[in-house]
Amino acid sequence: MLTRFFFGLREAGVPVTLTELLTLLEGLKRQVVSLSAEEFYYFSRACLVKDERYYDRFDRVFAEIFTGAEQLFARLVAEVPEHWLQALGSRVLTEEEKRRVESLGGWEKLMQTLRERLREQTERHEGGNKWIGTGGTSPFGAQGYNPAGVRIGPHEAGNRRAVKVWDAREYRNFDDRVELGTRNLKLALRRLRRFAREGAPDQLDLEGTISATARNAGWLDLKLVPERRNAVKVLLFLDVGGSMDAHVRVCEELFSAARSEFRYLEHFYFHNFPYERLWKDNNRRHAQTLATERVLRTYGKDYRAVFVGDATMSPWEITLTGGSVEHWNAEPGALWMQRIVAAFPRLVWLNPEPPERWDYTPSVQITRELIGDRMFPLTLEGLDSAIRELRRPLARSMPPNPAVSATQPTDPQT
Amino acid sequence: MTSARFEGTDTYVATPDLMMAVNAAITLARPLLIKGEPGTGKTQLAQEIARALGRPLHEWHIKSTTKAQQGLYEYDAVSRLRDSQLGDPRVHDIANYIVKGKLWEAFESDIQPVLLIDEIDKADIEFPNDLLRELDRMEFYVYETRQLVRARHRPIIVITSNNEKELPDAFLRRCFFHYIRFPDEQTMARIVEVHYPNLRKDLLAEALRTFFQLREAPGLRKKPSTSELIDWIKLLLAEQIPAEALRSNDPRKVLPPLYGALLKNEQDVHLFEQIAFLHRRSG
Predict the structure, then answer these.
(1) How many domains does the structure of chain A reveal?
(2) Is this prediction's ipTM beyond 0.90?
(3) pLDDT tens-digit profile of A19-62?
(4) Does A185 map to a domain?
(5) What is the pTM of this model?
(6) A283 and A305, same domain (yes or no)
(7) Using the beta-carbon criterion (under 8 Å), do A50 and B177 form an inter-chain contact?
(8) Range of the domain at A338
(9) Are the C-beta atoms of A231 and A202 separated by less than 8 Å?
(10) Same domain, A376 and A293
(11) How many CB pairs under 8 A join A and B?
């Protein structure tokens, strides 16, 4: 029973180890708990779960095992293509299409095959006639030609200006070795750490002491220096959705590399261009947003802002009131960008698109003008330049535009 | 081992799951890691355990500059160097310059002590890893004096964390874990009663209502917690604010009286005013 419970927890993704199981057994042997299920529940939870994030999963497994039902894991583990299926549900099939679906063995069969393919496939795929990807003739994918096809991914046609991307999560789920690919990015990001000495002088400065003592004719003169500490604070703004679908992976890599490198790192998501609201959790982007104005107020000038996005959109998404593809924005994105530039003088924009293409996309040009031409490609070399830019002392960076900082954002609630 | 059991005290209300975690940690001599919202009584727990069981308490408060070694001992090389220059005879015995840390103090205690390692997440990421062996074996080696320090009684170790950093797995594996949930209204009423036994029923009900309403407000940067509620009620009592004042529907008074005890920054105050303003307009 306990062994099944243990493996149940592992299957459900609660990281339990043998050590913890042994502790649990030891506790039972020494009668920490009496014969009450409630006590056993509390005790096993304290023993096996080490983070409140897993409490919920633990509860579900506990209920599953100890009420005897068997079927939970199908629900817990196979988180496969939930929103892909949602996308399918919303799709209206014509009579003819339905007949074509029948020819492949029917809807059920199709979904079954889809699940299998999803499991086999580990990376993005384009073309071809079997794998899920774009532009192919496989029944699975987007922008394909198989009439019995199941469209996965961009809702809109494939012109790189799509509004929603279902791709965003799938590849990350399959690929947990992002870390390996990020090693080179990590190297570059490491340069972002500027070892500033701050705080109380509490370390012996050996060289300083030797030289001061020597100068003192051998009479000891201790020199202390503050400890080296990483003082870099970074705000990361990530473009999700829309035209970024091809770049989600690169972004995700940069993101996972960045996470471990800084003492203060906050990330925010935006769609295409920052407007009056940003969000922190992409799954709950419609439920939990926060005002850009608050971000500007909260973080000081000592934060460095890093934007990641391809800045590829129609120009009026930047310049016009109400230009956003997702909502009615009361003020143009350009104004918000100016405010951000004023609030965070040290700012760069990393663009995953190759620089050769920048000149052909008007929105990229506009963005570059807005941020004082501090756009860099998302390559090792580009990162190097971006980091050099970020490390510049404040005074030599762009002076804030007084006209912009004077305009207060209009509060929609007043 | 001892059969000591912790069941809360007259000033501390412990929920059954918390009691279970504490007692399991005591019986199996494992450190107990406590997390939870600020102000839910994490630090106080260790103090109450020590008081309830009649054990000495050693508190080790962690700061961002704290090193694991400081909990064991420190070798004050600098003053030894100075003494050698001044010709002090103490200099010949290195033991004179070994300064005991909190862990050492706890190890030396005559009866089983309670050791609180407060806010472990404040320290460097390596800090918990550096303590693994010490917490496991309850011993460490002083290299300067070639002395092995071993705990006379395994201390009851309570570790608190505010979730500012992830703790290493190897460390977590050795601990029991408990997350102090924010108390529900019933528990909260009990907690307040423990602190103010003679509080009038209507004032308590109104204060709790206002308090939970305030916590519900979306987007508060710092939600008021138990300790803030206790402070606020203390103020209400001191100022002799009647229960009716809390119930007031006067549109000019959107903020509860003495809100300073509950809302701790001006953005929250501002936000709350805005919400109340909208409410009034729609209602």
Answers:
(1) 4
(2) no
(3) 888 888 888 888 777 667 777 888 888 888 887 777 777 887 88
(4) no
(5) 0.54
(6) yes
(7) yes
(8) 232-390
(9) no
(10) yes
(11) 69
